[in-house]
Amino acid sequence: MASSKAIISAARDNDLRERAIALAAEGRFDKNPQYFVESNLFQLASAPINGNGDTVASMYEYAQVQYETKKKELAQKLAELEEKRPGADPASVTDEHLKYALDYLTKQNATGEGETGI
User: Cβ-count burial of 8 within 10 angstroms (0-12 exposed, 13-18 middle, 19+ buried)?
Assistant: First the structure.
């Protein structure tokens, strides 16, 4: 059985509402399927989806937990990836690379062998 929070969340989910309207429009309701779905959102969320006692809201609640878990995992991976930006990651362009390039530019400027544009 779903919690009241799950019933409310499922009833307020716009994607779920639009999908239910589309399915109702397939011939289940000849007169205004949108009105029928929108006037029964909480009943729809509480309705059984199988013979095991699962409801739209209980399945929604389960899916929401799965979604949030995956979202957290992706956020963590994104944070780890952010540390690997080429300019921020000293393993990509090392400090030694930068020191060498700076020494090169210093020598270029000292001998007047080229304009650096800096």
Answer: middle
